[in-house]
Amino acid sequence: MSQRGSPARLNIGESESARIPLAAERLLVGTRVRRTGIVRVSTRVERRTTVVDPPLRTQRIEIRRRRVDRFVDRPPDIRREGDTLIVPIVEEVVTTRLKVVEEVAITLRRSLERRPQRVELRRERAIIERLASAEPPRKNRSQS
Q1: Is residue 26 part of a domain?
Q2: Contact (CB, 8 A) for 8 and 1
Q3: SS3 141
Q4: pLDDT tens digits, residue range 40-67?
């Protein structure tokens, strides 16, 4: 090409050949580690008070004594009637016969109740700060 950008004309005969040099560029790309800043992460515990109301399971034993006064040949077994445990109480009488004097009925009662309470909950928060680098920027190696 000529200086003004128009194509140059070569007068070459049929028997002649011309060589035209071609140019190409190469690019070399690389990376390097460069410190551009500092990040500081710290944590802080925050506290807040809230009301919790979990269900509390309770059990209560109810004991009733019941007079029986019945003679038996041998001590009766402990038995269960639904949620109630029946424990026979016996005594020996002079005739050596067994007599059930009373029974003790033990019943387990279950209930569910709520008792709201104030409790303090804690939670950590991350605090992130970006700080400028302490070292000066380095020159590009290709420019030195």
Answers
A1: no
A2: yes
A3: helix
A4: 888 998 999 998 888 989 999 999 999 9
